[in-house]
Amino acid sequence: MVWFKAKARRFDRVAKKYLLSSGFQFTDTQHFSQVPVSGSALENLPAYRPLLVLDLDETLWHGIPDPPVSEGHRFLVRPYLESFLEAVADHYDLAVWTAASEDWMRAGLRVIAFETQFDLAGRAFFLWHRDRCTWRRTEEGEGELRKPARKFRARWVCARYPAHWILVVDDLASNDLCGSGHLVRVGMWTGDQEDDELRALAAYLTAIVHEPDLRQLEKRHWRSTIPRNANALHD
Ligand SMILES: [Mg+2]
């Protein structure tokens, strides 16, 4: 009997680990336990959606020095940012992960909210900044900030968003997200007003949102795979 109970406990641990890594059943169990049992509880279940983690600098904005202003800098907002955020928010939950400092991140997010009327900071599942990155030494011996995909294995993240439901939009591939399947790499933006990367990206992300495993998709040449009739932006 003792042997049987030990086996059962071990099975329970293994099963929980598996469910956490795969997401679905454990998430549902957690979720149902939190839903108040009333007549229309099932109707009020929020639909789980993939998570889109956004880089900021040179992806959504470009910060430039500007000594005359009180902060000493200002943020240029990438073309189509407002319509991009509105379009992807229809299909994805949003989060932020930047290698910048928290002060810089929050200053830029205030500019975004003012210029686009889209409160990205308020709607983000998390706001990760430099403190969530790790330092790694490059071949040249210099320190470099990276965003390791293992951070998504935090229990409070993967309980809601299994790994195959997380995409990251970033202008840099030189981090651990590159080989993990999460990355949708965009061109680095430094102020070109003719840039339409976010417009194309919204169409692409909208087209793939129902794929069962977003990590397995080949995303390196994403611009060439957008359906011709895709136009996700609100005109
Ligand atoms: Mg960047």
UniProtKB/TrEMBL annotation:
Residue intervals of the FCP1 homology domain: 45-208
Origin: domain of life: Bacteria
SUPFAM superfamilies xrefs: HAD-like
Pfam family, one: NIF
Gene3D superfamilies: HAD superfamily/HAD-like
Name the UniProt record assigns to this protein: Putative phosphoprotein phosphatase
Species assigned in the record: Deinococcus deserti (strain DSM 17065 / CIP 109153 / LMG 22923 / VCD115)
